Amino acid sequence: MNTDRLLNIYIGFFLVFMFSPLLLMIVTSFNDMSPPSVTDWGGTTLKWYEFFWLSESELRQDPVLRVLDRDRFGMCFVNSLQIAAIVVPLSLVLGLSGAIVLVRWQSRANGLLWWVLLSPMLAPGIVLGLSALIFWGELGVNAGLFTIMMAQLTFTAGYPLLIILARLQRLPVQLEEAARDLGASPLRTFYRITLPYLRPALVSAAVITFLASMENYNTTMFAKGGSCTFATEIGAMSRNPNGHPPVINAVGTIIILLTMTFAGLHAWLQKRKASAAQ
Amino acid sequence: MKRLLDTYGRLLTAGFALFVALWALGLIILPQVSMLERALTAPKRQLDSSIAGTLGRDANLCVSILRAYDNEPITNGTNGGLAIPSISGISSPSASSMTVPSMGGMAVPSIGTQGGISNASKRPYILQCDRADTHQRIVRSTTEVYLDELYNLPILRVDETQSVAKQIEVAQAISELAFALETELKMQEAQAFSYTLDNFGALFAARYIPMLPEAKRIDDAKVIKKIYTRLGLRFENGGEIYERIGAITLFRTLCYAMATTLLALLVCYPVAYKVALATKPERAVWMMLALIIPYAIVELMRVYAWTTIIDNRGLLNSMLDFAGFIDMQAGESIQFKRSALTVFIVIVYTYVLFMVFPILNVMSTLDRNQIDAAKDLGASTFRIQWRIVIPHSKPGIAVGSIATFMLAAGAFSVPRIISRGLQSEWFSQSIYNKFFESENSNVGAAYSFGFTLICFVIVALFMWIMRTRLKDFAKVQS
């Protein structure tokens, strides 16, 4: 009983450690003070949120907001979405192929293939960005959105690979064999048996890959050349000599709230599904 | 292969094989090979042919500047060098200062002798003419080697005491010689075996650290410096201190990464145990949620969240002020940004959850009856952990440790945002600087390749010790 108590207190401390910086981030996003602070309260304000829709003339009047480039920020965000729109489907295709080959192809090269395909997930992110930069540079492709996509794809394909693989190993081979014996073509078997069985894995892999692509900083930073993404633009704001503008905290607050909403929704749905099954 | 073909037919199998091949070759292996190749070739600007080419271009430019200078009719000393700066912006700015007669003696003393006739006068300071010299040092790691000696060139230099016409003639000769040599050398270099390990050597290059005697005494007394000396990363030569900066950064980064991993393991193990085994499943769902939320939030945001805490006028300093340790009104504050410990703690914060989930996923597959049985048979808490829970969750511990170690070792965002350049680099920053600040991608590629190699060796060693296999990575995902 005593150890249980200790464990509970410990978990409490751990959660405080994990959540207090996030809480501070939310609080500072309403404070009229730049750089963001909780100790100096300059009055409650919403202007760090309003930054995204204020008119030009109002922006110019604010000493902190007027130096920020809103259009560039928007452009970088669109770049990120474009990258994710290419990277996520390609990652799924590569991950699916990799999983199928790794599970169904029994050979001596299998172990080597494991190492090759999983090595990007083990390698430091910066190395992946650099190798993509050099490789495509030698082929005559300048650093830009394309190199970012290639660099990200190298490791993002690993997430679908692992997730699909785990589910594929549980797929009874007899299902596919029965379909083939009953005269279904290989394509039909794949579309009617394998893919539907893998769908939950594909969905969660897509979500994880999307998040990984959007938030990736280390790899993108090295492959980006002159272009920018959401993450690199946020990272670049730390170079502001007067400390970063609280606009970042506003964006962070939105991200935190979105994440909490989706995670809560997911948990609730899971619970409902579980109780429906009973 | 037969099973693949049987189930999916030729078309699909070929498709899968093609995609896997594209991924493995086009995205993983070939980029690494090109990186290795870049790391093994000497930087282009250090090649003998590039040095010959630069010499040729310098001499050429010298000729044209001298010509322009020569053509300009110079009537008297008052506007002697006026024409020079306007013709070529490349020639040194000191040329313009010579337009003031009283300062004539500053750059070219000889102009003060009231000659007036251009041919007899000496040239002003022209950088390119000074550099147009066949006695040119070329890049060799060990000895001093010169271009003229190695390739049997006559020793030619543009002598400023000679007449301008003569100077032009010499410069022209130099440029012809140099360009001929460049073409020849380029042909040779294209055929020769040009790979070298010098770029990797740059990782261990020693740098002279200028230090006053008192500073040196303080520095010598530091424990960390003693460790560096022991490891051969720092040494004294003729009373001066030398440090192998690249290797020191690498060593520091790896040490911090290992410490991060160890700390994360200690912090996470009880958390994973609590959520996986010591909570009722209904409540565990909510605890999982509490762990997933910080895990899913954009990494950069979690780093930024710390800036409010560690700022000079941030939460920590205000708390210290409140407790009376420092006086912020008087401008006192602890500069947490300058402390490597802060970066370390934020890295732990950022990557700690990558340790929790693998352990948690494996632990939750353990049958709780085993624990109950052990308890009934009188095993202590420690014994239960040591004999049942830890052996069972070993794959999770291994995978979590590897993930955390690699993330911490390759951390780039945390030191960049937290330290803002106020403290010594992490190795990832060194690599970044080699590529994008000093524009030496060959050395940068060597740094990066060496770093990857060392990290993989450490991971492989760890996996061997823990008896884990790569396939555990798939098991841990659920």
Key descriptive features of the protein:
heterodimer; A: 278 residues; mainly alpha; MetI-like fold; 2 domains; B: 478 residues; 4 domains; 3-stranded antiparallel β-sheet; two-stranded antiparallel ribbon; 23 helices; 5 strands; 65% helix; 3% strand; extended
What does this structure look like?
The complex is a heterodimer of chains A (278) and B (478). Chain A is mainly alpha-helical and 278 residues long. Chain A folds into 2 domains: 1-68 and 245-278, no CATH class; 71-232, Orthogonal Bundle (MetI-like fold). Chain A is built from 13 helices and no strands. Chain A has helices at residues 2-28, 47-50, 56-61, 70-104, 109-122, 125-138, 145-156, 158-168, 173-181, 186-215, 218-223, 230-236, 247-277. In chain A, helix 4 packs parallel to helix 8, helix 6 crosses helix 7 and helix 9 (173-181) packs antiparallel against helix 10 (186-215). Chain A starts with a helix and ends with a helix. The model of chain A has no long low-confidence stretch (mean pLDDT 84). By secondary structure, chain B is mostly helical. Chain B folds into 4 domains: 2-41; 45-191, no CATH class; 206-243, no CATH class; 247-476, MetI-like fold (Orthogonal Bundle). Helix content of chain B is 65%, strand content 3%. Chain B has 23 helices and 5 strands. In chain B, the strands form 2 sheets. Chain B has a 3-stranded antiparallel sheet. A two-stranded antiparallel ribbon of chain B has the order 1-2. Chain B is extended and about 105 Å long. The chains are: A mainly alpha (278), B mainly alpha (478).
